[in-house]
Amino acid sequence: MKSILITLTIVFNTVVAVIRAQNDIYNSTVHLIGYTDDEEGNTVDTITGTAFIFMFLAEHLEESNLVISYPFLVSNYHVVSRMDRAELRFTKRKKSGHAYKPDYGNTFTVAYDNFKYNWIRHPDPNVDLAISPMAPILEGARSKNIKLYYYPLTNNILPSNDEWGSIDQVENAIMIGYPKALMDTVNNLPITRTGTLATPLNLDYNGKEEFLLDVPVYPGSSGSPVFLKRLINPSAMTYPPQPATYEYKLIGIAYGSMTYKSKGTIEIINIPTIPTLDFKYDLPLNIAVCIKSNQLFDFVPIIKELLNE
Fold first, then answer.
1. Which of 44, 91, 182, 252 has the most CB atoms in a 10 Å sphere around its CB?
2. Is the distance from CB of 223 to CB of 288 less than 8 angstroms?
3. What are phi and psi of 46, to 5 degrees?
4. pLDDT tens per residue, range 30-85
5. Smallest Cα–Cα separation from 181: which of 47, 22, 23?
6. Residues 190, 154, 143, CA angle at the centre, nearest 5°?
7. Are 7 and 136 in contact (CB under 8 A)?
8. Phi-psi region of 181 (alpha: psi -120 to 50; beta: other; left: phi over 0)
9. In contact, 41 and 89? CB cutoff 8 Å
10. In sequence order, what DSSP letters do the residues of the chain get, joined into one string?
11. CATH architecture type of domain 2-308
12. Tally of CB atoms within 10 A around 113
């Protein structure tokens, strides 16, 4: 695993402090399409889910103003743990002046065998998270002289400790993913859902580091990143008027939904991973259950240990 981690690192020209363009967020996710096989290798189920790219252990090199870090895919463990095989599709990049931009419509597909064995589970089995190093994907693309475009998320876009403690009111949030495997297939882009916080972020819902979000979820939404959307530059406050500017903070990862069961109880269930699943007897309450994003830091000691082996 150490060789996989250190094979490739990603270098940026500046440290990303906040995400201020929704187009950046669109390019941070990956559609997971997986297959569960029987003992004879026949496909039993087709599974869909969402992953996003997160950079761990970012180091800022002051002398060159570069950032070196380790990119990982992040998703729910209940999604990837059943994927014997998987396909991931990435957008290629193109040069535009001195910068790189997504070459929409031009993609690179990665086919994985033994996909579920490439993931590291969260150290607390009650936390439905898992990560997988992206180095093999990037190395495979580079060996074919293919350049991929994606926008990785970093710890700099997570709320600070002060912000976690102050977000207690209803605020706008967005979830990005592939509900029912729905996406812009031509441009390889996800779907954005908008809602509001259903519980305050400065408190742990039912004593767990989770919160509720007033957004419907469907099979394929598992692993979707959730962002707080805040207006930081209202157009009415500037002269001459300028377009409004929004700031996005990564606050969580969707994994479950509130469901009203036919027996009259309300339960939290994992978001299903099979798009054709039919809800005949249970009534979804259109409330997503999300893991707080600060639990991503629990993976850091594991990654450091792997690097030191």
1. 252
2. no
3. -105, 125
4. 999 999 988 888 888 899 999 999 998 765 445 555 556 789 999 999 999 999 99
5. 47
6. 70
7. yes
8. left
9. no
10. -HHHHHS--EEESS----B--HHHHHTTEEEEEEEEE-TTS-EEEEEEEEEEEEEEEEEEETTTTEEEEEEEEEE-HHHHTT-SEEEEEEEEEEEETTEEEEEEEEEEEEEEESGGGG-EE-SSTTS--EEEESHHHHHHHHHTT--EE---B-GGGSPPHHHHHH--S--EEEEEE-GGG--BTTTTB-EEEEEEESS-TTS-GGGSSEEEEE----TT-TT-EEEEEEEEE-GGGSSS----EEEEEEEEEEEEEEEE-TTS-EEEEEPP--TT---SS-EEEEEEEEEEGGGGGGGHHHHHHHHH-
11. Beta Barrel (2.40)
12. 9
What DSSP assignment string belongs to 91-127? EEEEEETTEEEEEEEEEEEEEEESGGGG-EE-SSTTS
**Structure confidence by residue, pLDDT tens digits, 119-172:** 999 999 999 999 999 988 988 898 999 999 999 998 888 998 888 888 877 889
Query: In the prediction, which pLDDT does 95 show?
Result: 82
Q: Are 199 and 52 in contact (CB under 8 A)?
A: no
